[in-house]
Amino acid sequence: MTAQILSSELGNLIQESKRKNTELRNAAEKSLDELKALRTTSEAQIAAVCLQRLVVSRGLPRSRLREVLEAFREATSAGLDVQLKILQALPSLLQNYADDLKGELLAASKNGIVNNTAAATLQQLVVSVFDKVVAEDKIALEVPTIGEAPIENGTVQLRAAALDAYREEFCTLYSDVT
């Protein structure tokens, strides 16, 4: 019996037992809630894994990035496994699609495990960005500047990794978490 048929039958059972048998109605309602939660979690888990793999392999078309980010945001209310899969996708998402990401990327979670994992993921991303800046500085004469940033008395020229570290979105994301 498929989940859809089972769901329909439980709904019918709830309607028929409203006045006659409250114990049966309560059990049917609980079963229906559990069925809905199981189905949603299972689908969300599969979707999160698929989207994570697309992001890691750079198989996600840039034109669909907004939809994927929205799906990730909506899935943050799903189970712990789904939330952790989303966090696993973030480093690759930021590495492969950095130029296309704008605005709020992460949603707050009430789960301590997810919050700790998110903080560790963000810390790894920050370290990775600044490791690239250090490596770029070692070969500064070989790498052209591609942007600039304001300083107290003018501007300073920035290379690619330094520009990534300076980006307003990155700074805002990090300051919001710390």
UniProtKB/TrEMBL annotation:
Q: Which residues form a coiled coil?
A: 10-45
What Pfam families does this protein map onto?
A: DCB (PF16213)
What UniProt keywords apply to this chain's record, in alphabetical order? Coiled coil
Q: Which domain of life is it from?
A: Eukaryota
Q: Mon2/Sec7/BIG1-like dimerisation and cyclophilin-binding domain: from which residue to which, for each copy?
A: 45-137
Q: What is this protein called?
A: Mon2/Sec7/BIG1-like dimerisation and cyclophilin-binding domain-containing protein
